[in-house]
């Protein structure tokens, strides 16, 4: 019998967590619904592929709960709206076998709703619960809810799982299921599409480094700008946009920094794009520049599937994807000189880049397939339901 799942996500924008949920929800399209706590492009994408979706807007005080918050008056003001929202989600959750929280904010609402509805809750942990990303009180809240109100925690990497346990999470509740990506989008890219992009962006006959991520300080795009000062003639594509909170200030700071470094003519801010596979094929090297540990690193696997050499920072889940010097290259976080040196070597020695790309492609197909992710999610949902039914 097909598991009926109510997927809960707090965001209306499209980022990595939402793209993974899009693929997972497709697998349950005939028996499930996605419930969003904010409207936006994500709702449109879900509807385009025939997934049932409903928007239940969170009150402003709940929306204002941040990763860095340390409690206080703001959290107290959010309580009434949070409880009302949880009741509304609970009424819907009673019609499903499991409530699946796709983010930490979704966990706060979903854990309470699951308790009210007597519906098992599964939390997909897509973050590293560390001081780099969350305040002590936010980490405490997450592990407390998970330990007492969640049947199963699905972590997207061993790094995420280990951080959960270090923060006080119960190890027996967490299982690792690596993210998976459908390679077909990358296999279908035509050379003519890449040529058209080169003409559109006026990038013919120049070396191109591509970074693909939302623009946020911890994502480290500023490190790539500093590296470009050591790479004359090399152009950089910054694909992604500022999505949350103060990230717009970071985008403005990046533009100003590019001008100050006198590299603005070689830095291309492309914003949010739908043609990621084509832009990756356009790039000579795909880079990942996060200065804090990355829970997984979707762009790394995408770069591998695009058959491009990938350079990533050595922290968090990235070390579980790349074998340094074999399927990609790892560099110290925040070290522009080291990044520039690796990029210079790869651009000067294309044969090495091609060897890394071949090995990376094989790793991506074998370890990070969409099929493997969906099978892992299904197993954990069923196990979570079994564990819940077995409890007195």
Overview in brief:
The protein is α/β, with parallel strands linked by helices and 392 residues long. It has helices spanning 16-27, 41-48, 60-63, 73-93, 104-117, 136-149, 158-166, 184-187, 191-201, 221-228, 247-260, 276-282, 298-305, 318-321, 336-348, 350-367, 370-390; strands at 5-9, 33-36, 53-55, 98-101, 121-125, 152-155, 174-176, 208-212, 235-239, 267-271, 285-287, 310-313, 329-331. 48% of the residues lie in helices and 14% in strands.
List descriptors.
single chain; 392 residues; alpha/beta; Rossmann fold; 2 domains; seven-stranded parallel beta sheet; six-stranded parallel beta sheet; 13 strands; 48% helix
Please tell me about this protein's structure:
With 392 residues, the chain is of the alpha/beta class. The chain has two domains: 5-180 and 370-390, Rossmann fold (3-Layer(aba) Sandwich); 184-367, Rossmann fold. The chain has 17 helices and 13 strands. The chain has a seven-stranded parallel sheet with strand order 3-2-1-4-5-6-7, with helices on both faces. Strands 10-9-8-11-12-13 form a six-stranded parallel sheet, sandwiched between helices. α13 (298-305) links the parallel β11 (285-287) and β12 (310-313). The two termini are 24 Å apart. The mean pLDDT is 92.
């Amino acid at each position: 019998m097909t598991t009926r799942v109510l997927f809960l996500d707090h965001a209306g924008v499209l980022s990595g967590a939402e793209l993974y949920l899009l693929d997972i929800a497709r697998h349950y399209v005939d028996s499930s619904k996605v419930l969003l706590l904010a409207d936006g492009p994500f709702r449109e994408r879900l509807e385009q592929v025939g997934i049932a979706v409903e928007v239940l807007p969170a009150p402003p005080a709940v929306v204002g709960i941040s990763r860095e918050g340390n409690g206080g008056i703001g959290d107290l003001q959010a309580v009434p709206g949070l409880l009302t929202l949880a009741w509304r989600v609970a009424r819907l959750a009673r019609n499903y076998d499991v409530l699946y929280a796709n983010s930490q904010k979704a966990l706060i609402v979903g854990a309470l709703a699951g308790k009210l509805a007597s519906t098992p809750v599964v939390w997909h942990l897509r973050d590293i619960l560390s001081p780099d990303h969350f305040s002590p009180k936010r980490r405490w809240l997450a592990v407390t809810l998970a330990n007492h109100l969640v049947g199963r925690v699905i972590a997207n990497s061993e790094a995420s799982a280990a951080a959960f346990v270090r923060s006080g999470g119960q190890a027996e509740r967490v299982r690792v299921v690596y993210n998976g990506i459908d390679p077909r989008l990358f296999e279908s890219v035509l050379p003519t599409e890449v040529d058209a992009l080169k003409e559109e962006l006026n990038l013919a006959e120049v070396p191109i480094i591509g970074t693909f991520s939302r623009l946020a300080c911890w994502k480290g795009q500023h490190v790539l700008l500093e590296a470009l000062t050591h790479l004359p003639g090399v152009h950089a594509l910054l694909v992604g946009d500022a999505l949350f909170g103060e990230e717009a200030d970071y985008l403005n700071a990046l533009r100003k920094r590019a001008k100050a470094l006198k590299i603005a003519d070689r830095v291309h801010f492309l914003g949010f794009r739908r043609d990621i596979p084509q832009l990756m094929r356009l790039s000579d090297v795909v880079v990942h520049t996060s200065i804090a540990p990355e829970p997984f690193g979707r762009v790394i696997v995408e770069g591998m599937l695009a058959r491009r050499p990938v350079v990533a920072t050595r922290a968090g889940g990235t070390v579980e994807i790349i074998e340094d010097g074999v399927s990609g290259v790892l560099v110290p976080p925040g070290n522009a000189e080291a990044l520039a040196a690796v990029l210079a070597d790869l651009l000067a020695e294309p044969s090495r880049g091609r060897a890394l790309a071949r090995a990376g492609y094989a790793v991506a197909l074998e370890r990070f397939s969409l099929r493997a992710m969906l099978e892992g999610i299904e197993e954990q949902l069923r196990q979570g339901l079994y564990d819940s039914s077995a409890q007195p």
